[in-house]
Design brief:
The complex is a heterodimer of chains A (275) and B (153).
Chain A: E1 2-6, H1 15-28, E2 33-37, H2 43-48, E3 76-77, E4 83-86, H3 91-99, H4 108-114, E5 122-126, H5 133-141, E6 144-150, H6 154-173, E7 178-184, H7 191-203, H8 217-224, H9 229-232, H10 237-249, H11 261-265, H12 271-274
Parallel strand pairs in A: 1-5, 1-6, 2-4, 2-5, 6-7
Antiparallel strand pairs in A: 3-4
Chain B: H1 3-20, E1 27-35, E2 38-43, E3 63-66, H2 67-71, E4 77-78, E5 83-86, E6 93-97, E7 99-107, E8 111-113, E9 123-127, E10 132-135, H3 137-146
Parallel strand pairs in B: 2-10, 3-6
Antiparallel strand pairs in B: 1-2, 1-7, 3-4, 5-6, 8-9, 9-10
Classes of the chains: A alpha/beta (275), B alpha+beta (153).
Chain lengths: 275, 153
């Protein structure tokens, strides 16, 4: 079982989009995947599940009134047969408040996910954008952390903070956390995006994936339709780049292999502008 | 914020994270691994605190034992580990596994320890909660050496 967290302490960088797309692409390949929504905003849950919560979701793992349930009992199916989701609910915000200062609570999620059935191939954690109990649980459980970084100036400071957090968690656990920085929401028509990408490649080269995820309005359309992008817009350019990223994450192509010229330089798809 | 205040804030955050991740005195931390479709638990203290996973360049010279082959009783080494797990305290040795899963905390009483080690001396016990066999890394290396495999110098 591969356990990857998609995390950044800055919001609006494409965490949920990245988590949902990677989970969908893995399921499309036939892998059995669990997407865990750890963000109290519950964006991934709203994207893929009916609005009415049928169970308490991930919050139940952190203890409620009753006994902690088995994690497998909390999984809910999605439109993609191989993909299940552990939903976020508003109760998750209360978990953060209630337990954030209790010693030892940073390992709850790792222990719960360790008990998932052995048939699960991949677990993707969609993290909240604040450093607290839930993010610490995700980073402590993850074998690898994917850090989406929006290619805009304010994102670089967020990346610095995130890298410092990863170092500290690693220090607490006595390990080096494998992290991949993934530039997202890239619009090469803007000078700011080009400059930030250049800065990422010079100042943040360690752990930086060489590709860039372009702005692609089809992804937003997929979320509006409550569909997985891998089913809704499988030929969109962003999906193509995410496929390259996934191949690198799975070791099918070298981590530092540049993506194709077409992936790097094709014009961003923006149907609203085009119209 | 002044550099001194920045440093103090960093120290405070590190203490907070250490406390959140404190496994507690009664628990042992295990790294869950997958080898030959078997879930394996290895005490986290037995894993060297360096980059694990696929970054082989960071691993240094080690003899990489294919853990699945050890479980089958026919240990072999591989030149390039699929997922590298360097062993602590034995610099010449590491394990190649199919996947590295998560770190878990387990109370000692939750492990069914094997009382007599006849064959398969590396099999130390079972953690039912995680469906994982606990391996003894020293016995894994002994098993390999018994088959004429030597660690990297």
């Amino acid at each position: 079982m591969n356990l990857w967290a998609v995390a950044n302490q800055k919001g609006g960088v494409g965490k949920t989009t990245t988590a949902v797309i990677l989970a969908g692409l893995l399921a499309e390949r036939g892998a059995r995947v669990v997407l865990v929504d750890l963000d109290p905003h519950a964006s991934a849950s709203a994207w893929l599940l009916p609005a009415a919560a049928s169970c308490e979701g991930v919050a139940a793992l952190f203890g409620g009134d009753g006994e902690m349930p088995e994690v497998a009992c909390l999984l809910e199916p999605t439109v993609q047969p191989q993909l299940q989701i552990l939903r976020a609910t508003p109760a998750l915000a209360a978990v953060e408040r209630r337990l954030a200062t209790q010693a030892g609570m940073g390992r709850v999620l790792a222990n719960a996910l360790g008990a998932l059935p052995a048939v699960i191939d991949h677990v993707i954690l969609d993290c909240p954008p604040t450093l607290g109990l839930l993010l610490v649980n995700a980073l402590a459980a993850a074998e690898r952390v994917i850090v989406p970084v929006q290619t805009e100036p304010l994102a670089l400071e967020g990346l610095r903070r995130m890298q410092a957090t990863l170092e500290m968690i690693g220090r607490s656990q006595g390990r080096v956390i494998d992290h991949w920085t993934v530039p997202t929401l890239y619009d090469q028509r803007t000078r700011a995006a080009r400059e930030v990408l250049a800065q990422l490649r010079t100042e943040f080269a360690d752990g930086l994936w060489p590709g860039v995820i372009p702005v692609d309005t089809r992804l937003r359309d997929a979320s509006l339709a409550g569909e997985l992008p891998s089913r809704f817009c499988p030929r969109s350019r962003a999906l193509g780049v995410y496929r390259s990223l996934l191949a690198a994450l799975l070791g099918e192509r070298p981590r530092d292999a540049a993506v194709s010229w077409e992936e790097e330089h094709a014009e961003p798809i923006d149907e609203e502008v085009a119209a | 914020m002044t550099p001194g205040a920045d440093h103090a804030a960093g120290d405070a955050l590190q203490r907070y994270l250490d406390a959140l991740l404190d496994p507690g005195s009664a628990d042992t931390e295990y790294q869950l691994l997958r080898a030959g479709s078997v879930r394996v638990a290895l005490a986290a203290s037995a894993v060297a605190p360096e980059a694990t996973g696929g970054d082989q360049a960071a691993q240094g010279a080690r003899c990489w034992l294919d853990l699945a082959s050890v479980l089958r009783g026919q240990p072999v080494t591989v030149a390039s580990p699929v997922v590298a797990v360097p062993l602590a305290g034995v610099p010449g040795w590491g394990l190649s596994v199919e996947a590295q899963e998560t770190l878990v905390q387990v109370a000692d009483q939750a492990v069914t320890w094997r009382k007599q080690r006849g064959g398969r001396r590396w099999l130390a016990g079972l953690i039912e909660q995680f469906g994982a066999v606990v391996i003894d890394p020293a016995a894994v290396i002994e098993e390999a050496e018994g088959h004429g495999i030597q660690g990297a110098v």
